[in-house]
Amino acid sequence: MMDECFHENDYHVSRRIYSNRVFDQVHERQAQEIQSLRERLGRACGCTDKWAVQKIKGLLPILDWLPKYPVKQWLPGDVVSGVTTGLVCCLQGVAYALLASVAPVYGLYSAFFPILTYFVLGTSRHISVGPFPVTCLMVGSVVLTLAPDEHFLRPVNITGVNETVTDERLMEVDGEAREAQRILVACTMTVLVGLFQVAMGLMQVGFLVRYLSDPLVGGFTTAAAFHVFISQIKTIVSVPIHNHNGFFSFAYTLIDVSRNINQTNIADLIAGLLTIFIVMAVKEINTKFQHKIPVPIPIEVIVTVIASAVSHVMDLNSQYGASIVHSLPRGFAPPQIPNIALIGKILGSSFSTAVVGYAVAVSVAKVYAAKHDYTVDGNQELIAFGVSNIFGGCFSSFVASTALSRTAVQESTGGKSQVAGIISALMVMIVILALGPFLQPLQKSVLAGIVIANLKGMFMQISEVPVLWRQNKIDCLIWIATCLASIVLGLDVGLLAGLVFEMGTVVVRTQFPSCATLGNVPNTDIYKNMKDYKNIDEIPGIKIFKCNSPIYFANIDYFKEKLREEVGFDAVRVFKKRNKALKKIHKLIKKGKLQATEVRLASLGVENQAFEKEQVPELDEGASQPDSEVKVQVDWTSELPVSVSVPTVHIHSLVVDFSAVSFLDVVAAKSLKLVVKEFIRIGVSVYIAGCDGKALSFFDEEVTRDILFLSVHDAILFIQLETSTGNDEDPLAEKFHESIDPLQRPTRLHYCCCV
């Protein structure tokens, strides 16, 4: 008969029907090696020469890759890439300093110092380390909070013919004191960010960043791009506004800009808009013709050089009041010690910035690592960025991560290794030591335009929302919720709110898991959700129930509720109704209104072993018993001789598919044991498929390991064999007849199936 269903691509399976107990008897388990704590510590702390070398190379990856560096093949590409990327680093560093609310020269430092340590400690060959708009904005938010303009007001000195008079009614901002305090706040935060990252790396907790899912990071970075855009509007139009942070800060900024819009500097506005248009247009050309252009056009550099020259020749600052960079001194600032007194005020913001900076950097690094077939060590990246931020923070730099556009330039121009990064740092050093003053006439609106033009990639993430909605609505909601929260509440609180919302979706999805009734694909051992496919057969008398989630204390009640819905009856209620009907039948027999053979009545109660004791009705102890035994055989599907409505039980077996259940906690295990007993006492056999059985530590004389099967198909074949050879007596009635032996399950069977 099996041969009739065979086709050319079918195959034949012939093996035993395996319950878990039989499988363990036939196939011996691997012996589990149990080590004492002393042995584990000895193995963990044991040190060999090979182990020591591996650890040193792990902490200093440069010792591993530099001796193997193929100079002839890689060096030319690294030089071209390093020079090109270095020019972009200079301009982006100066521009992103505006986001951090510090002087532009500190942006150059931030594009130089972190690269030096990452060259030694980093494991990614392609990312360009330096300022990133999101982290810069997060630093700037803290800087403006702790060092606002209002803290540095001083009376204006009015110089007369013979003397200088101080007018207490007129106040001005002490620019030097403000800049000194702001860079101190930024450097202290950068060092603290680095300490957090190093600590996480040493504790090997890089995996925690995996909780920042792609939808969450996408929504957060899009919101950050929105905040960056709003923050640069004031620079583009060059109007005076107050500094705003926290809830609805973007709205207050827009209100201030709209109130002072009549003070717009036309020269700055034109320069800013032209910069945005030109940079975005040329970047689009670079993208469209990337396979035809050997090196992307460094449009930021070209625009900056031209804008600086125009501003210098036309003297835009004096003639038109344009806001320019002013001071970009040569050389490096001396190292400074962070202000420990500020740590308590910036602790939370520093931790969130550390997580965001690392998450973005490692995500970009893994993309290029997969593209070029090498691996990135997440924990070592934490240490590398942490040390880079500590080192940079001591030399007047702000938080380093990686910028997507800058990394794309480094990779697309032929960068092969970290050597491209160190060459880009040399280019930045040249600008710091020699070329910085040439950028002093540059308008700040041009830098703001460069920042806004580089936000296009982050804003384009909005196009992912419709795709996410079609693929997974919950992931789409995570994206939207994180984005809106970060826009409205600010980046720090918004990230936390998005993370809480994401964790909430995980809890909800496990607390209310998807459950289904499975049916059999004819002539196969395949079982699918009956709601998803046509021509799927439900096996008569057998219900196959599947739960697609771990089962634990939070969702066990939902599991039992869905199980009741799928089987179509409540086993406890059926038991109580049958018990009530049997007592009435017994009374009728006693009065002689019904005829029956003699047996002794016994209790139908089953003790509830769960944490919440459920009282199960039993036969009344005071009820009079017949003088002789009466055998009671009840057909529960037919009309009963008593007026008791007993729910119909249309199945004789229940198979619970646990193949998608990863774990059960102690509460779920005890409740599941109760569920199994509830079905057994009404005559429904319960079998569990796809479960190893180690988590089910509830077996006893009534619920044995024989209910466990390797697969749903094993359980179904076993049930079919059992029903074809078993007895037809009602198991509930058997409780009244003590002479019935328990069912002996066969353990050595063979089957064939066509699939």
UniProtKB/TrEMBL annotation:
Pfam families hit by this protein: STAS, Sulfate_transp
UniProt key word Secreted: no
Transmembrane stretches, start-end: 94-121, 128-147, 183-209, 216-241, 261-282, 346-370, 382-405, 417-439, 445-469, 476-501
Main location class: membrane
Subcellular location: Membrane
Sample GO molecular function, one term: secondary active sulfate transmembrane transporter activity
Topology with respect to the bilayer: Multi-pass membrane protein
GO cellular component: membrane
Keyword Transmembrane helix appears in the UniProt entry: yes
Record-linked PROSITE patterns: SLC26A (PS01130), STAS (PS50801)
InterPro entries cross-referenced by the UniProt entry: S04_transporter_CS (IPR018045), SLC26A/SulP_dom (IPR011547), SLC26A/SulP_fam (IPR001902), STAS_dom (IPR002645), STAS_dom_sf (IPR036513)
Superkingdom of this protein's organism: Eukaryota
Protein name per Swiss-Prot or TrEMBL: Solute carrier family 26 member 4
